[in-house]
Design brief:
Structural class: alpha/beta
Shape: globular
Distance between the termini: 18 Å
Number of strands: 13
Helix content: 25-40%
Bound molecules: acetyl coenzyme *A
Radius of gyration: 19 Å
Strand content: 15-25%
Strand order of the largest sheet: 1-7-6-4-5
Order of helices and strands: EEHHEHEHEHEHEEEHEHEHHHEE
CATH class of the largest domain: Alpha Beta
CATH architecture of the largest domain: 3-Layer(aba) Sandwich
Number of domains: 2
Largest sheet: 5 strands, mixed
Length: 331
């Protein structure tokens, strides 16, 4: 049995930085509220001409460089994002075109903040069966162009950022290394607690002039409800991974939770009885970048030396769906 390893990791965020003070000019909010409730200070938003596949491409080239591989060596693309460059096809195809590798399969995963961990689990299965030896897994998101930037949408709009992270995944014969276990969950009962209701294929016509005048086209969240579920599901799914692999939280070198809210990350650390030095947080600089947040965080943690050879790292996510997931990795 072979395991899968992340042998290359890269990130890319747009160069346009939006501060909380910039948001104060767009809606009735304040730097103080945003910092206190979320920990966010800045986020990166795309500018005219940026594309989702472009962000993904830049992150991919960095990940390939670290892995010592060329685009032509990629055998499978897994693209995790809520969106695509266009309504369809999926974003993986637009990235594949940019990489110049026609014929390589491209699969899209729309599991919001859990997309990267879901994708890692899929990649792990394909590596384990021997189907592929080099898989590109991307988490990329442009949220800023879909937000309600008026006071009506302030609870959601202040938390989201744009960005991309990419991982190159290859096999190892060492069974104690790489992805040790993955755990995926979903509960569609709560789909409407965090969603964008429209455009919906159930509306006929799907898009109308009347529709765009409504707030149905914007992402909506019952913040407190989502918060309560998040602080339960994160520790639960981390414990699930530790138990499956025969470890305890004391064995962990680093937890990388999806970056949803600094207070959620602190609550997770508290419940696991881990210091914040063991639970990665960069939400102050990026906000919530949905599927991109975990690979961006891994890339930074590797760069900062927080993840080294043999580190035991737990990835954990929670988000729209609801979906939640974890992966335990021996680096
Ligand atoms: N600026 C100023 N005031 C605001 C803002 C804002 N940006 N947003 C909301 N408020 C106001 C509200 O109107 C409310 O006012 P009221 O008391 O007069 O009614 C007050 O602040 C409190 O609002 P709450 O929504 O209760 O604030 P809360 O402390 O819950 O924080 C937040 C909101 C940050 C969204 C929080 O609930 C949260 O982080 N939830 C979870 C987010 C999450 O985990 N998402 C999952 C991932 S996202 C994905 O999967 C796509």
């Amino acid at each position: 049995m072979r395991n899968s390893r992340i042998t290359g990791i890269g990130r890319h965020v747009p160069d346009r930085v939006i501060t909380n003070f910039d948001l104060e000019k767009m809606m009735d909010t304040s730097d103080e509220w945003i910092r206190e409730r979320t920990g966010i200070q800045t986020r990166h938003w795309v500018r005219e001409g940026d594309t989702l596949s472009g962000l993904a491409y830049n992150a991919t080239m960095k990940a390939l460089d670290m892995a010592g591989k060329k685009p032509g060596e990629i055998q499978f693309i897994i693209f995790a994002s809520l969106a695509s460059d266009h309504e369809f096809p999926g974003g993986g195809c637009f990235l594949q075109k940019k990489l110049g590798i026609p014929g390589v399969p491209a699969m899209d995963i729309r599991n919001a903040c859990s997309g990267f961990v879901y994708g890692l689990s899929v990649a792990d299965q394909f590596i384990k069966t021997g189907m592929y030896d080099t898989i590109l897994l991307v988490g990329a998101e442009i949220q800023s162009t879909s937000l309600d930037l008026t006071t009506r949408g302030r609870d959601v709009s202040v938390i989201f950022g744009d960005g991309a992270g990419a991982a190159v995944i290859t096999p190892t014969e060492k069974e104690e290394k790489g992805v040790l276990t993955t755990h995926l969950h979903a509960d569609g009962t709560f789909a409407d607690k965090l969603w964008a209701d429209a455009p919906s294929v159930n509306d006929n016509p799907r898009i109308s002039k009347a529709l765009v005048e409504t707030d149905r086209i914007y992402p909506k969240m019952e913040g407190r409800f989502v918060f309560k579920h998040a602080v339960t599901r994160f520790p639960e799914v981390i414990h699930e991974a530790l138990a499956a692999a025969g470890y305890t939280k004391d064995d962990l070198d680093l937890v990388i939770p999806h970056q949803a809210n600094r207070r959620i990350t602190e609550a997770v650390a508290h419940q696991l009885q881990l210091g914040m030095d063991k639970v990665y947080s960069n939400i102050e600089r990026y906000g919530n970048t949905t599927a991109a947040s975990i690979p961006i965080a891994i890339s930074e943690a590797v760069e900062q030396g927080l993840i080294k050879e043999n580190s035991l790292v737990c990835l954990a996510s929670f988000g729209a769906g609801f979906t939640w997931a974890s992966a335990l990795i021996r680096w």
